[in-house]
Write a structure and sequence with these properties.
The structure is a homodimer. The first copy, chain A, contains 11 helices and 7 strands. Chain A is α/β, with parallel strands linked by helices. Chain A has 2 domains: 169 residues, Alpha/beta knot; 58 residues, Helicase, Ruva Protein, domain 3 (Orthogonal Bundle), CATH 1.10.8. In chain A, helix 2 links the parallel strand 1 and strand 2. In chain A, helix 2 runs parallel beside helix 3, helix 2 runs parallel beside helix 8 and helix 6 crosses helix 8. Chains A and B meet through helix 2 and helix 8 of A and helix 2 and helix 8 of B.
Chain lengths: 247, 247
C-alpha cells in the first residue's frame, strides 16, 4: 500500500459528527472542508435543518459527502463503534476532561485509527454541546483563538481540524498504540452493568441519581478502556451479582 | 510586554491581501477567519464586488476588519512596505519559486515580522493569481489538500493559514533573523534601476522584452535582499551609468 493510499484509509476512519446543526449553509461548508482534506465519514445527530439546495450549493463538488451522511437520533448512536471521541468546544476550565489543541490531539487521534473509527464532535451553532453530550466524549478539543473573538464558524472549525489531521499525517510517522482499544459501546456496556449492580445493591438510587453516573462515566472515559479491561470489568460485575460465597 | 500582547503585535503585522475577489460572502468569511485568529490587516486589490450587506453579515462580529480594509489598485501597492510576501496557490511545479506548506512557512514568516509587515496573497476565486502577480511574491504557499479535490474556499484557505500562524506562534519561540530585510519597494527600486541601465546599454530592449525582467525579478525575490545589499546594488548600478573611466 503506497503512502497516498495509507493516508486515504487513515483519514477515512476519522468521523465528523455534527450535533443539531441549524444552518444548511454550514452543512455544505463542512462537507467541502472535509473533502478538501480527504475526510468523508459524516454523521448528523438530530439536524435542525434539511440537506437542501443551499447546503448542496455550499458543498460544491463535495455534495457526495453530504448525501452520503448518516442521520441518527442520538450522539451515543453516532459514537457507538468509535474507539476515541473528541468534543470540539471553547469551554475548558469547568470540565474535568483532558483538553488538547488540534496540534496536540492530531497524532494521538490518528494513531487510534488503526483500531477503529475515531470521531470529532461539533455542537450546534447556537448552543454548542450540552454537558450530557460532552460527558459521552473522551477528550475536549480546543482550537486556539483570539480571546477577544473566538467565534469560529462551524465550517471553519471543521476546516482547521481536518487540515491539522492531514498535515500531521503527512509530516509524521504514526506512533501506534500497543493495546486494543474498547469501543464506545463496549465502555457503555460496562457502565450499564455497573449501574445495574450498584442499583441492585442499593448503592445507587435512580430516584435520587445525584452525580454518580456522570462521574463514573468521566472516570472510564478519561481512562480510555482497553478491550481486555472491558472483559475484566464484565467479569467483576457478573461476580458481584451472585450472592457472596460463604466458606 | 506580556506574551498575549507580543502575540497580538506579531499577528497585527501579518497582512492578508485579496486580489480581485468576486464574492461578497467570501470577503466576510475572510474577515471573520482573520479576527478569530487575531489578524486584522486586510488589503483588497481591485475587488470585483462591494463590501455590501452580505459581506458584513458573513463577517459577523468581525465587520471592523472589513470596513477597515485598505483598497488599492495593484498588488505592487499592496506589497510595497512588506519585507516578505507569500502567494497562496495550488500551483507548484511550473514555477521556480520556493514553495512551502503553511506549517513550514509559519515560523519563517513570523520571524520576519520583527522587520516589518509580511503579506500572504490570495488570488481570485475563479482565476487565482496571474504569472505576473506570482512573480511579485517571494515564496509560494501550498496548503496540502486531497489531490482529488483541492478546491479550498477562499475563507477556508485564510482560516487554515491564520490558524497555522497563531498555533505556531503559541508553540514556538521565534528565531529572529540576523539581517535587516529590504522592503518590496526597495527591491523593486533595484530592479527598476537595473532595467534602466540595461536598456541604456542596449542589453535589454523593451520592444522585445522576452523573459529577461521576470527572470531577474525571480532571482532577486528568491534571494531575499537585505537592506545593505540594496545599497550595494544601488551603488553598482549608479556606477554603471557613468562613462567608463579611461586611465
Amino acid at each position: 500500500m503506497n503512502e497516498g493510499m495509507m493516508m486515504q484509509e487513515t483519514l477515512a476512519r476519522v468521523r465528523i459528527v455534527l450535533v443539531e446543526t441549524s444552518h444548511p449553509g454550514n452543512l455544505g461548508a463542512v462537507a467541502r472542508a472535509m473533502k478538501t482534506m480527504g475526510l468523508r465519514d459524516l454523521v448528523l445527530v438530530n439536524p435542525r435543518c434539511a440537506v437542501d439546495a443551499e447546503a448542496l450549493a455550499r458543498a460544491s463538488n463535495a455534495a457526495e459527502v453530504l448525501t452520503g451522511a448518516r442521520i441518527v437520533s442520538s450522539l451515543a448512536e453516532a459514537l457507538a463503534d468509535t474507539v476515541l471521541s473528541l468534543a470540539c468546544t471553547s469551554r475548558r476550565r469547568d470540565l474535568p476532561h483532558p483538553a488538547y489543541t488540534p496540534r496536540q490531539a492530531a497524532p494521538r487521534l490518528l494513531a487510534q485509527t488503526v483500531q477503529g473509527p475515531v470521531a470529532i464532535v461539533f455542537g450546534s451553532e447556537t448552543y454548542g454541546l450540552s454537558n450530557e453530550q460532552l460527558a459521552l466524549c473522551r477528550w475536549l478539543l480546543n482550537i486556539p483563538t483570539n480571546p477577544d473573538y473566538a467565534s469560529l464558524n462551524l465550517g471553519a472549525a471543521v476546516q482547521v481540524v481536518a487540515y491539522e489531521l492531514r498535515t500531521t499525517l503527512a509530516d509524521h510517522a504514526l506512533v501506534l498504540p500497543e493495546f486494543a482499544a474498547a469501543t464506545h459501546a463496549e465502555i457503555e456496556g460496562v457502565l450499564g452493568a455497573l449501574t445495574e449492580v450498584l442499583t441492585e445493591r442499593g448503592f445507587y438510587n435512580p430516584e435520587r441519581p445525584q452525580r454518580l453516573l456522570p462521574k463514573l462515566r468521566r472516570f472510564f472515559a478519561r481512562a480510555g478502556l482497553e478491550k481486555e479491561e472491558v472483559a475484566i470489568w464484565r467479569g467483576i460485575l457478573a461476580n458481584m451479582r451472585q450472592p457472596a460465597r460463604k466458606d
